[in-house]
Design a protein that fits this description.
mainly alpha
Length: 61
């Protein structure tokens, strides 16, 4: 009986953790979306040219 109760507590704890992590991800996604929407209308966004993250040519060996 002790093992069953321990397993039930562990399962409930894992579900609480998963729910909390899901809420954190949703909040981060909402913040990112709000930041993106706010940046679309700003003048700074339009003034910058596109920048590539990688160099256009490969490095010489």
């Amino acid at each position: 009986m002790y093992e069953y109760e321990f397993q039930q507590m562990r399962a409930a704890d894992l579900m609480r953790r998963a729910d909390h992590e899901r809420q954190v991800r949703e909040a981060a996604r909402a913040r990112r979306a709000a930041r993106h929407e706010g940046a679309e209308g700003s003048a700074e966004h339009e003034s910058h040219s596109r920048r590539f993250r990688r160099p256009r040519s490969a490095r010489a060996a």
